[in-house]
Amino acid sequence: MEKTLSDYLKKHMVRLNNHIDLDAIVSEIGDSRYVLLGEASHGTSEFYTIRAELSKKLIQEKGFSFIAVEGDWPSCYRINRYIKGYYANQPQLDFLLKHSFTRWPSWMWANKEILDFTTWLKKHNDQQSGQKKVGFFGIDMYSLFESMEEIIRYLEKHDSERVESAKKAFSCFQPFQKDEQTYAMSAGYLSESCEDEVIKLLVEIQTNRDLYDEDPEGGLSLELNALVAAHAEHYYRSMVKGDTETWNMRDRHMAEAVERLMDFHGSDAKVIIWEHNTHIGDARATDMADEGMVNVCQLIRENHAPEDVFAVGFGTHRGTVIAGDEWGEPYKKIIVPPAPPDTWEGVFYAAGAHDQIIMLKQHHEKLQEVRGHRAIGVVYNPQFEHLGNYVPTSLSNRYDAFVFINHSNALHPL
Predict the structure, then answer these.
(1) Could you tell me the CA-to-CA distances from 187 to 143, 152, 267, 301, 357 in Å, in that order?
(2) Looking at residue 162, what DSSP letter applies?
(3) Which of 3.40.640.10, 3.40.190.10, 3.40.1660.10, 3.30.70.3400 would CATH assign to domain 5-64+271-408?
(4) 183 Cβ partners below 8 Å, 6+ apart?
(5) Where on the phi/psi map is residue 93: left (φ > 0), alpha (ψ -120 to 50), or beta?
(6) What was the pLDDT predicted at 330?
(7) Would strands 14-15 and 271-274 be described as parallel, antiparallel, or unpaired?
(8) Nearest to residue 299, comparing CAs of 246, 267, 259?
(9) Which label site among 123, 205, 369, 397 has the fewest CB atoms less than 10 Å from its CB?
């Protein structure tokens, strides 16, 4: 009989020695169509590499259609074009990553781990027919001005009748000099809003979507850029309030973007979603629910059968991470101190100072108590971890499986 929770984990966890051990998660995923793979930080190498290995297995063994990530649509769509061989003159991948992801923190996607994975995706897709090629799409909503520029660029080539409408909408934003923060202040405090213009443009593009049937994925990109522009405008206009609604706007947008991508890929589509634990772990199993916050996992779970959705959380006990001291500051490697014993990371460490996997559906009752669970963002100061880096979490209600990395290492930016 187990005396402690750590004793229970020691008995039931799967030791993670190599990538073959990830087969246990793939088997548990079964026929799920929505697989959400998290990360406890944006700057940990192991989170990226393990997600990549899991994704390769899901693509090869279970026929997953595309990967949706916590990145901007225009930047990720360039990578999607590369891995599908759409460029007439293929650029160098490292050059493409470094010059596509310019919004801070660029190191989230312009890193060696993504370079290695997208290289694999390109080789995989080269062996597939058109509809079988795996996509790579960004579902975030920060790229207001870049998405507007992409809309105009596409319409100039494919739909001259609607170019003027797009340019008129974009002209509303010109006084703000492509600065989202400036627009946020003006729209929030001075009511200088471009809402009507972007909503009209979105409706016009959606209404005329059949015009782009000869270039279906280009039409999809046009529609998603228009959706980003409409939702980002609302987001930045509301940002000055500083309440939970801006968080909810963002996660509702990401969930809607996933569903539009699923519709585009057909009734048999399957998606792998890469985001921070705070997005892919059910908000209802954390203190986010007390604040009225929702997230991507919650929204997808609410709209689909339980067997269709599988969420994998990640955590680390100690190591190093890439992050900034403040928003917009240059990245640096930061030491992640050992997690306190009473946190989930501390409990897993006590069960064994090695990497582990636990299937939470199989041990739901035993692992649903609430404990702190480490979350590191793009800004991190380990001296103040105890003040805000541990999210009260019911582990088995938040995820369906959990990957524990005993000692993790910092990401490798290009």
Answers:
(1) 17, 23, 40, 34, 47
(2) G
(3) 3.40.1660.10
(4) 144, 173, 176, 194, 233, 236, 237
(5) alpha
(6) 93
(7) unpaired
(8) 259
(9) 123
Give CA angle at 143 (141, 145), nearest 5°. 135
* Residue 241, pLDDT score: 67
What's the one-letter identity of residue 177? Answer: Q
| Residue numbers of the chain with a pLDDT score lower than 50 | 1
The single residue listed with the structure tokens 């000099």 is 177
From the CB of residue 94, how many other CB atoms can be counted at a distance below 10 Å? 14
Query: What's the Cα-to-Cα distance from 127 to each of 57, 83, 123, 130, 151, rounded to whole Å?
Result: 16, 11, 7, 10, 31
For residue 5 the two structure tokens come to 């929770």
Cα angle value 284/285/291 (rounded, 5°)? 50
Read off the pTM.
Answer: 0.95
Per the CB < 8 A criterion, the answer to whether 276 and 375 are in contact is yes
Per-domain boundaries in the chain = 5-64+271-408, 144-265
CA-angle at 211, arms to 205 and 213, nearest 5°:
115
- Encoded tokens for 234: 């609302």
Closest CA to 316 of 399, 389, 394: 389
Joined tokens for residue 264: 């585009």
The predicted structure's pLDDT at residue 1: 36
Instruction: Note the pLDDT of residue 389.
Output: 96
Question: Which pLDDT score is estimated for 376?
Answer: 98
Is there a contact between 21 and 361 (Cβ–Cβ < 8 Å)? no
